Amino acid sequence: MAIQTDDTITLMPSPHAEEARILLEKIRALRAEIPRFAPAEADLRQFNGYSAVPDSALEMASVLIETSDRVKVAVGDEAITLRDSYGYALAYDPVVQELLALARSVTYSIRVQRAAAAASARDVYAVARRISRRKDGTELLPYVEDMRRKLNKRTRKTTSNPVPAPDVLPAPPSKKV
Hints:
mainly alpha
């Protein structure tokens, strides 16, 4: 909600603000419930090569640690530690997928509500514009003009650097038999 005076808009507290704040606290509290939680760092490139290692190779590495004392000493790791680490990764991957699905759904919900508010605002503008054209509706003219300016001020997404068309590769020569 907002109150407009002259060129200043004062936002009024939303009735949803407290609900959102409580939900944010719950989401932040989830961090404490996730074992081995590590806050994300900006540079994930350090893990790029490791994400492609298949589970079967991880298991083979743990078997090798168990069967060869030389490998165990050289690596300085226990098979149980290795299995525990990739077991953790396997167990928590569905949690990530669920959180991402939740984030997408909340984003969608926000867009639905914003679109509903925008549709209402356009309806209000259209009705106010019609009424302002009548003799008894001139008090609405400043509001209608202000909304007209604001609705026409919307910035359109443009790309100053359009994506070039992909290069067309010639077809490979056909073999004549």
